[in-house]
Amino acid sequence: MSCGCDMIGETGLRFYGKMTASMSHEIKNALAIINENAGLLEDFTLMADRGMPIDPGRLKTLAEKVIKQVQRADGIVKTMNRFAHSIDESVKNVELDEVLDFVATLSGRLAFVRGVTLEVESGAIPVTIATRSFFLENLVWLCLDFAMDATGGGKTVGLRAEQTENGARLKLTQLQGLSERTTSAFPGEREIALLDALRAELAINERAAEIVLMLPRDIGQ
Fold it and tell me: Taking 70 as the threshold, does the pLDDT of residue 80 lie above it?
């Protein structure tokens, strides 16, 4: 990735740090549960050494819990790996539903902590554009971070991609509390730097309770 903009570089580092910290926290939680179950397995072993009977059902349950946490940790590591590789290519074709799904996955724990549900509404027809995927993920996250404080009582953010004549638009919807938020500081300088880099535009529609990102079909090199 090459970009001479210090603001974009700093914003990208913040984004990368926040997401990797969140995912590593999830891995740590999974490992803690595995460690707890390993302790129980050790207790069962000691019981067996003393000639005490062990319920096979409890062993099976223990094994299932460990397998579930290993699969959970494996999924998080795969997400981290994909996230790291999103920096590799400057411009590539991306399907916007996949981008929204991915950012929702990256942000899942942070949304959960704030009591917000993320709903990605997949369209019938895939919407593909050529863009800088890491910059786009970063911009969607910044919009999502703002939007999660604008959900009102619904506590839900909808995410939807739509094709347009010249490209695509991404919508963050169900923001019933948008009119109650101070929007004068949003988009800020970080969002504006990414909008410029992506040749994108952002609009806030309080009446429709949504934030809209307009993206070109091909950002060029």
Answer: yes
Contact criterion met (CB below 8 Å) for 29 and 35:
no
Exposure on the CB side of residue 17, measured as CA atoms within 13 A? 6
The reported pLDDT for the residue numbered 188 is: 94
pLDDT value for 5: 58
Mean pLDDT of 184-188: 88
Query: 209 in helix, strand or coil?
Result: coil
CA-nearest of 159, 90, 102 to 131 is 90
Evaluate if pTM is beyond 0.70.
yes
Among 214, 212, 187, residue whose Cα is nearest residue 200: 214
142 to 11, 15, 19, 103, 193: CA distances (angstroms): 10, 9, 12, 10, 12
Pairing of the two strands 156-163 and 117-121: parallel
The set of residues, in sequence order, having a beta carbon less than 8 Å from that of 13 and lying 6+ positions away, is none
Query: Mapping DSSP to helix (H, G, I), strand (E, B) and coil, where does residue 214 land?
Result: strand
Give the amino acid at 171.
Answer: K
Is it the case that residue 122 has pLDDT exceeding 60? yes
